[in-house]
Amino acid sequence: MTLPFRDINVQAASDSYIFTSPSSPNAPALTIDRPTGDIRLSDASLLAGKRVARVSSIAGILGVVRLRLDKYIIVITKAQPVGRLRGHMVYKVVATEFLPLRERQIHDHDEDKFLNLLRGFIKSGPMYFSYSLDVTNTSQRQAQHDLSTPLWQRADDRFFWNRFLQSDLINFRTKGGRGSPAPQPGIDPYILPVIFGMFEIHSTTFKGTPITIALITRRSRHRAGTRYFSRGIDAEGHASNYNETEQIVVLNDRGSGLGGFTGSGDMQSGKLGGSDGKEMQVLSYVQTRGSVPVYWAEVNNLKYTPTIQLKSTEAAFPAAKAHFDEQIRLYGDNYLVNLVNQKGRETRVKLAYEQMVDRLVSSPKERVQSDALTDEKFHTIETSTKPQTSFDRLHYIYFDFHAETKGLQMHRAQLLIDRMHEALIAQQYFRAVDSPASQVNGGRLEVRNLQTSVVRTNCMDCLDRTNVVQSMLARWTLDRMFIDLGLMARGSQFKDEDPAFEFMFRNMWADNADIVSNSYAGTGAMKTDLTRTGKRTKAGALADANIAVTRYCKNNFFDGPRQDAFDLFLGVYQPGAANIGSQLVFVDRRPVLIQAIPYLAAFSLFFVFVGMWTPRLPDSAVWPMRLFIIFWTAVAAWSLTFIISNGMLYVNWPKLVPRPWAVEGYHETITKVVRKDKILGPLVAKHERGLSTARYINAEEGKKRIE
Question: Which keywords does this Swiss-Prot/TrEMBL entry list (predicted)?
């Protein structure tokens, strides 16, 4: 079994960076040459006397990234222990450092911006790893893997968050490098998989029985991004905001908690101790969430509700087919719980989803159930015959969440769980034991039960409504687990059996909701008062209003750079591979007059404020000041009206990978301004005719030559 090194020393020399593991002195040293970036493995003992500038200890190598002018090795300098799961310690990335391959002599605006984006993204992004536990895979998938293969090769590609950054090391592993054109297994311990999402472990008790409960949310690296800049699916079938959430319960866990030494015997073994001869039981329940799998987008225009763009289901059919083909292959039957509104602007998205399921399922049969609150309380689509294709394993369930829970009646969401009761019983959950026999079998868990299907939940954002439903499904399943373990009597609920455990469970799921929401929308989740307290309150509704306003501001004015950071970290945009002449990618290329309007509005409001509050001499005339205030009020009103009516020009769009709808909307709005605005139109048209990207590039290159 090849596991990542948990202790690495990095030696910085003028011609290379050398990585070694003090606890594995016989392991080869990883050398990355400067400034070429060539990778090779060397005998660590031969490098002992090499002169180096400094030596530092790191927790692992996050990866290598090539920007416009240089390559950088990103190393994890500080990792915080989160807790132990099945005896394996899990860590959170706390601090990193960028090691440049060459000393840059000139200042470059784009290079500095790239570095700032990456540093900010890594600092704010919740990333987790383990030296001995495959955190990218569910317990059920881990039980099916060959534990003799290196940890990174077992990783689920969807959740291997730093997969792009590890490309140089992985390519060297599979193909070799200069002077050694063959696979290089010696580099395996230097490749460390990291996930992005949530990892919370609690060593607690339930009715006096010690248990470990963990909640893990893994965010997919495919089509990742921010709320309004990443919707629907792409041509490969990857859904936006796709997350896999796993709730794990461990009975008789090994060495749970944070105390004690993580290794046993040698530092490369990740397990701690035993469980006093008791059989360790592992129970796991998995859910997924992801954007509605059609081609759609919400176009920001500074209005509170963005405009929805939706392409035909025929165009998106191959992508949706690829998406659900993967989902069925990985999870079995898929129960597609759709929580969007049946009325208003969300209707088009709902209908498109239903049309897509109708096309995928052979002989679809639809059932609609209504009640006093809504005409479409439930809407289900399933095959009416015996399954003929794999897509007949799709089971669509629409639930009008907002209509049913209107007026703080959140308890009515339980109707969905009741409706799915038979499916949840048939679905089951994963259960396995770690016994002496499993140790003989290479440490692989002995499987006793498998989860045979998955619930895929979505609303418009896959955040607030989705969080509520997923926590309710997890609660229902946890009740079942405790009953099967003999910890509760049949028909009991753990919320009535152990109030302290109930409090911990609620807060754990509320934390999960906030973390998933922060990474996508930039704020905590709504409706967490329900998750934390079990009741919808007026204070929670006011907190949701505050979150809604914050989301509006962040999604319109701050999410462009956040999306750029996603695209840069995940390799969607690669500065080193960009076309020649791609300098100044962050320059604001709007006409100067368009850029000046917000400043004009701010100055106008300032002058109005000054005019209203400046003391007037007793014998001075009144009208000059009144005219001053009226004039600047009119200018402010015109400026604000222009900004609101041409909102596409003032949204902070991503600059590295422009969204097609954003480019189209920008040009349409500019054309409208040029044609219709009598004040700015002629001036903007003159600016557009004289605008030359080459002028900017040549000027910048000249400045660098001077430096």
Answer: Membrane, Transmembrane, Transmembrane helix
Residue 272's pLDDT is what?
55
Q: Cα(413)–Cα(473) distance, rounded to whole angstroms?
A: 11
Q: Which residues lie below 8 Å from residue 431, measured CB to CB, with a gap of 6+?
A: 281, 282, 283, 284, 447, 448, 449, 484
pTM above 0.85, yes or no: yes
> What is the C-alpha to C-alpha distance for residues 110 and 118, in angstroms, rounded to an integer?
12
Amino acid, res. 66: R
Tell me: the pLDDT tens digits for 585-634? 898 888 888 999 999 999 999 999 998 888 877 777 778 888 999 999 99
Alpha-carbon distance of 123 to 572, in angstroms, equals: 20
| Among candidate residues 163, 108, 208, the one with its CA nearest the CA of residue 583 | 108
Q: Which residues have CB under 8 Å from 79's CB, separation 6+?
A: 59, 60, 91, 92, 93, 94, 129
- Residues in the chain, how many? 707
Angle between helices 538-557 and 559-569 (to 10 degrees): 70
pLDDT at 262: 40
User: Which pLDDT does position 624 carry in this prediction?
Assistant: 83
Question: What's the rounded Cα separation, in Å, for the pair 507 and 274?
Answer: 30
Cis-peptide into 35, omega within 30 deg: yes
pLDDT tens digits for range 377-427: 999 999 998 888 999 999 999 999 988 888 777 788 899 999 999 999 999
> What is the Rg, in whole angstroms, of the alpha carbon atoms belonging to the chain?
29
Contact 316, 227 (CB under 8 A): no
Interatomic CA distance for residues 398 and 367, integer angstroms: 10
pLDDT digit string, tens, across residues 234-255: 999 999 999 999 999 999 987 6
Alpha helix segments (H runs only) across 453-558: 464-484, 494-497, 499-521, 528-533, 538-557
Q: Would you call 263 helix, strand, or coil by DSSP?
A: coil
Residue 103 pLDDT grade (very low, low, confident, very high; cuts 50, 70, 90):
confident
Residue 569 CB contacts under 8 Å (≥ 6 apart), including other chains: 65, 118, 121, 122, 164, 165
The full DSSP string for 578-639 is: SPTT---TTS--S-HHHHHHHHHHHHHHHHHHHHHHS---TTS-SHHHHHHHHHHHHHHHHH
Contact 80, 88 (CB under 8 A): no
Question: What sign results for the dihedral spanned by CA atoms 136, 141, 146, 148?
Answer: positive
Distances in whole angstroms, Cα of residue 544 to Cα of each of 277, 479, 523, 540: 49, 29, 10, 6
Return the closest-CA partner of residue 81 out of 120, 123, 129, 126: 129
What dihedral angle (degrees, nearest 10) is formed by the CA atoms of 492, 498, 500, 501?
A: -50
